[in-house]
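Sequence in, structure out. Go.
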Amino acid sequence: MSSENVNIANTYMKFRNSYNHGFLKYYYFKKIISYATGLYDGVRIRAVFQKLLDHDIIERRYEMGSKGKPVLRYRHNPYHIEGINLYGSYILNKETN
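Output:
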């Protein structure tokens, strides 16, 4: 797996401001990675997605689905933003890599 594809996907998601879309299904990220990198093999797309997960660029969260079942959702978070405080500014994690 080329780290170039991971960098391309991450840069494109930053350009699209994917963080503002919130938590989404894997399907959204699969389409974005495929478009940005030109990969159409599902195994390679999943490998790029997994690398983004491993580097904490994409975070995961379980949410309740429409039928009461937990659904796994993902959010692109390259800046490690936890949320928005009362004054409208972002709260950053204090941990450094």
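Check: Residues 3-15 form the longest helix (13 residues). The mean pLDDT is 83.
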